[in-house]
Model the fold of this input.
Amino acid sequence: MAKITPPQIIEMKRKGEKITVLTAYDYPTARIVDGAGIDILLVGDSLGMVCLGYPDTVSVTMEEMLHHTAAVARGTENGLIVADMPFLSYHVSIPEAIANAGRFLKEARADCVKLEGGVRMAPTVKAIVEAGIPVMGHIGLTPQTATQLGGFTVQGREEGAAKELIADARALEDAGAFSIVIECVPQELSGRITDEVSIPTIGIGAGLQCDGQVLVLHDLVGLFDRFLPKFVKQYADASALIREAVESYKGDVQSGAFPAKEHTF
Ligand code: KIV
Done:
């Protein structure tokens, strides 16, 4: 199977095919997610929280994102790889944003980048796209600037705020983004945005009407135990499974049951 491209993702919206997106952060998770046939592997800056133990996504650095994106690229054959641009890697100036976006393609072999923000970030998105780098937008609850938004709360509940989010989505489409993540907004609003733009919307906590869905892999499989957002469906308890295996190993070593004859030269 050939690698999925941004035009194919846009075509999926036109055909009414739902787009599947999941985060991946390293070689083994990329092999699992890509092997399962997920369309887009997002190396999210949620990396900072679920893999690196930071309290939020603000501290994540370019070097950390590049290191993990390169590992995901080595484990991916078909899925489109989107690398999240970390906080302040695209805010200082447009030339710096282009240079940092370019590092994800040149050094880490990502296919695209994602950045947070709508109308305010549209000129930056346009410049990165014009440099030949596909961009995924991200509006609604934008975790890098959650403090400014008043915390991790549902966005766009008031009509004024809803109109601003619709304007954000339009600005990203006009700037050349190939898709938009919509995080934590009421379903009715994400449906309106999805109808307004011709590029796909990818929802997280945004209801059924988006063109696709994204979740953090570690939430989906139960590997992150600090908190579980309301919008997550947990499909497995991998923490319990791994802990059970580790405890069995410990018991076997202590009792002398491991290594057995078949593990011994
Ligand atoms: O960093 C991330 O994982 C994300 C998704 C939640 C959309 O941005």
Summary: The chain has eleven helices and eight strands. The radius of gyration is 20 Å. The chain has two domains: 6-234, 237-265.
